[in-house]
Amino acid sequence: MKKSTQKNILFFFLFSILFVNLGCDSSTENIPKSNALFTLVSNTKTNIHFKNNIKENLYFNFLNYSYIYNGGGVAVGDINNDGLEDIYFTSNQNSNKLYVNKGDFKFKDITKNAHLTDAKGWTTGVTMVDINNDGWLDIYVCKSGSLQSDDFRKNKLYINQKNNTFKESATQYGLDYDGFSVQSYFFDFDNDGDLDMYLVNHRPDFRNSVTIDLERDKAIKVYSSDQLYRNDNGTYTNVTKIAGISNRTWGLSASIGDFNNDGWLDVFVANDFYHPDFLYINNKDGTFTDDVLNRFSHISNNSMGSDFADINNDLQPDLLVLDMLAEDHIRSKKNMAAMNTNSFNLMVNAKYHHQYMTNTLQLNRANGMYSEVSLLAGIAKTDWSWAPLIADFDNDGYKDIFITNGIENDLSNQDFRKKMERNIMNRKKVTLEEAIAMMPSEKLQNYSFKNNGNLSFTNTSGSWGLTQKTNSNGAAYADLDNDGDLDLIVNNQSDFAAIYKNNSNNNHVSFTLKGSAKNRNGVGSKISVYSKNNKQMKHAFVSRGYQSSVSSKIHFGLGKETEIDSVIISWGTGLQETLKNTPINKNIFLHYKNAQKHTVAKQKEKQLFSNIDPTTIGINYVHKENIFNDFDLQLLLPQKQSEITSSITVADVNNDGLDDFFVGNSKGASAALYIQKSNGTFYSSNQQLFSKEKKFEDTDALFFDADNDGDIDLYVASGGYELNENSSLLQDRLYVNNGKGIFIKSSKLPTMLSYTKGITAADFDNDGDLDLFVGSRVIPGKYPLSNPPYLLENNNGNFTNVTQQKLSDFSEIKMANDAVFSDFDNDGDADLIVVGEWMPIVFYENKKGFFSRKEIPELIKSNGWQQTIKEFDMNNDGHKDYFIGNWGNNNKFHPTKENPLHIYADYFDQNNSFDIVLSKKSKGKMVPIRGKECSTQQTPFLGKKIGSFNQFATASLSEIYGEDRLENATHYKVYNFSSIILKNNGDGTFKQIKLPKIAQFSPTLDIAFLDSKNDFPTIFGVGNVYDSEVETIRYDASQNYLLLNSGTQFQNSSDTSFLTTKEAKAIETITINNKKHLLILNKNRALTLLRKQ
Questions:
Q1: Greatest CA span in the chain, whole angstroms?
Q2: What average pLDDT score do residues 388-392 get?
Q3: With contact defined as beta carbons under 8 Å apart, do 484 and 585 qualify?
Q4: What are the tens digits of pLDDT across the range 966-1018?
Q5: 1082, 612 contact by CB (below 8 A)
Q6: How far apart are CA 19 and CA 1040, in angstroms?
Q7: What is the spatial distance between Cα 913 and Cα 781, in angstroms, rounded to a whole number?
Q8: pTM to 2 decimals?
Q9: Alpha-carbon torsion angle 96, 100, 104, 105, nearest 10
Q10: Are 838 and 778 in contact (CB under 8 A)?
Q11: CA distance 320 to 359
Q12: Spatial distance between the Cα atoms of 1011 and 1045, rounded to a whole number of angstroms
């Protein structure tokens, strides 16, 4: 073929890339001693010289097959029943290889003699399974990639002939599928005792992989859908269509497990590109229903490998899914284009879920729902990742994580993509070799994370000896030398496969399952191990991670524990066995024949709360947020400022001894006042008044006696980011009570044209009436700037702004969210504490009606994004302690005193848009949080100054924006996002107590205190924030939390009766029919009403 013709064909291929979102040999003979957990064993020792090489040509390359760099898999199992685990590697374009374990990390290649030579087609995943239940492992191999040959895409099933040879028999078993397969998963979906199979596939068309096309997605084709096969007496029947799982996506992995705790196995599927993952819930009748939208609050965008295992030892499996977000600042900025807000909203509205380019760790809440906590756990960013393996590698009793990553050529590099776009626009023709050379190629180090036992992980990649830089794909774990720890086997692209010896010396135990006649290896069984200080659980599924299958031996680390209390094996068929006096540091055989029928008597646990439908007692209120896009004003806002409210307050407004409540609403929707009747029902009052006032946005509310007449009046704060600065709609409102619960609007407030929030009342000047503090939150359109707060002195019901005269040094009060008058120094008067965003926790001491700043040494660098403060006595010692709800730790910012989060704000490009830049230090220099595209949209002068993504990625903040601009800008810092208790030591000092991890899942926006049996107040916390900008994962992990208080520490309640995935904004206690209830304000929803049992 002529070179010019080749260029023309290549030019056609290059055009498609704009519409595709592309997803050392040592000579030492003996294994060197190492202090690291893992030692790389040389291939001269192992005799494993396998290398997965690929070769591109004009007709098969990254342009017409986007998965060309996805790599191969590995399977581990004892194929000859000699007690040693053997290894099978898949090669994309060359023959797969089987290596028999000869002991002492020496292996022998028996591929040819075993009749396993297979160089035809494109091989992907592999699973070892005893498919015919003869006690010998067989091998199922997936095929894909062969664009022009159905025959080359037929999956292979190699039946073990019990003499180190195999016979290909896929057709006889009904498993010679010829689509585009990635990996197989064997499990019993219909609970009939035998193994069925789920087959993950990908669609071969990549041209609309970044644009939602609902009609195209509905056009399901057999060869591009995942497949479900039912085992019918040893042969397999395709039941995909009748099971309801026909689809058209780019599947890359699956995880099997009981996701909703109903005793039937479900299927999670990780899908690449824009298509959402699936969570197929088993309907127990041979069909499945995808319920991913309801079970997970958000998911990964480019979902790749996955694993389902218990990471926090609560005996509930958790789900880890990988994506491609880089930890390194430079790589992240070179490789990530900006997420388009409109495209994101289109995806959400099409029910393709909230997707983010990040790893996700879905924590099982034991109620069929999950909280995504990857950022809290510290495992969200591992670059272009493939295989996650959750297992206890250091044998300390907690499961760790190993992750492979890397790609042969970096398809996502933005400079490469821009250059290709320019070539096409200019009709410049390039050869395939030139196109490949334009892509950066950078080998990466794999990741390991040590489980700290508290929902956090430590990156141990270097300290554990995983320092080699490779492009790694499939991986598996097994105890290759039978020394009681898990070794690693990794399939690398264009490099020799890696074998890592594990050097752990902690105690351990493992189990080999001898199952039923229809499931000889006990696939799907659950093993639980109980010891003095720990409890652990694992499920017996071998297909894990990415394109790979692990050892069927079930392994547990025990740390320094020397005894096992009990072991329970549940075989998944209603049979169970309990073992006592199990020896440690041994492999134990568990036999199905020893199990007995086990019926669990369903004991209904007493729940702490009952969920009451508010409409049944006359409460029909629904919060309705008005639609406004804050990001049109300031593109780089971390989250919206227009949808902030805590406007709910409770009091007896008509003096009948019953609790009533007011709840505000957003602009255009009416607030409501509900009056309680003697029978515990409510009616809506003052409807005409609040209907007239619905032009206001209610941001906060407080019942208090404004005019000292003995009844309760109402203060409502106003806000709105869509308003003009100094708009009359920012004026706060005072509604005066006539004593019978009828309110009229008062004019006795001063002019207050600020976005306000954080109202507290006290008689700070000791004149017998209640005065007010009201915080100013943010100036509309000028985040993070705010107006001064308001200190309002009450003079016979008329309020005067005395801030300048009586509140000294209020410059530190920025974006106030909450405040409390509290006598923190026990001198008999009302002192003041204020919390907010980009500000420290500020104490003011009351000195005869004047407030002076009180420096608290423990609160130096306490700047955070605090949302609420509440006074209480934690341990009943008579000293006032304080709960402070902050932003939490499940976010990408993680500010510290050593590395704070910065914001710079000014008119950087001299236009009408007030610009902001969020920044942190990376490798010693200040760099922007956001990427080149969105930063340039916010400040267009960067488009001319910064020419490439690489230039942006490698530049410091001052090099990007200019030192003079930054010096002249408003500059704030935050150091801490943790929600805390400030414990009063009684001597003018305080101790900070960080709250448990459960209280750090999301921003804590509000709390309520509940009585407890031990007389120490219990804390009920609420808060989620769904309106972050689209490149920041929304804060949706909280399902509310209940902290039990011992007087010295707090512990999360295991009760699930109050859990919810709503976007809760505020909470109040209310007594209804003489019973304590919790009233929760939810954004765009009805109220939640919980009755305390």
A1: 100
A2: 98
A3: yes
A4: 999 999 999 999 999 999 999 999 999 999 999 999 999 999 999 988 889 99
A5: no
A6: 41
A7: 8
A8: 0.95
A9: 0
A10: no
A11: 7
A12: 10
